[in-house]
Please model this.
Amino acid sequence: MATPALAQEPEVAKSGAEPTPSDTLQELLQLQSKPKAPPKPVKLPDWLPETLSILEGEQFALQEVMAVMQGQLEGQGSLQAEQLAKINQSMSKLTQQMGRVADLSGGDIESNQALAVHVKRVSLQLEHLAKQLLKLEQRAIISESSESKHNRAIKAVGKRIDGMESRLQDRDSQLAQRMRTILWLFAGIMLIMVGLYGALYWMRRESNRTLQAQFTKLVSKNPPLDPDTKPACDPDVKELIDTLHDLSQDKKS
Model:
């Protein structure tokens, strides 16, 4: 029944009438029943397997480097410029090699499904690594800015501490100078008092020694008198008696 339907199709098209659903279904069945032609084999270039292996090696190396950088970010909070340059260099090399694969394959890369899947997988992985690298760079920028803020705060606190230490040292030196001055003054006052006491003691001792010498001289000149007789009124004796009387009064006072 499929052959008459196909024979009537030109007449329907000529008359300008629209095809019925039955005609469309019969046409689809006929198309599905036709055998599909086998895909033409595509000869791959000799350099393509080597290039793909290089791509995989670069990809794994880049993954290792990024893992190391991730650990450094978690441990230190900053990304060094040399390591970041190495990552960027590896990424650019991979991009160039992928472009070489696409250019030299002559546009037949899509006809070979295995090769297309492999290249697409490498491309996706590279894109994923690029996104991770961007995140790492953003983290590095944030960590560097926060680290610079912390460094500025630490420097400010350090300057304040240094200022406080210098002020405390100045106060300590001033207090020590004052204490030394007070001690020197006290020592001077004590020395003056000791000197005055020594001078007074020496003057008193000399006066007592002089009076004792005078008394001895007068006794040696005037022998003892009879107690029944009235003593002579010697002016020297009288003066000596008055002096002894004054000294006794001073001692009592």
Q: What stands out?
A: Residues 79 and 137 are 8 Å apart (CA to CA).
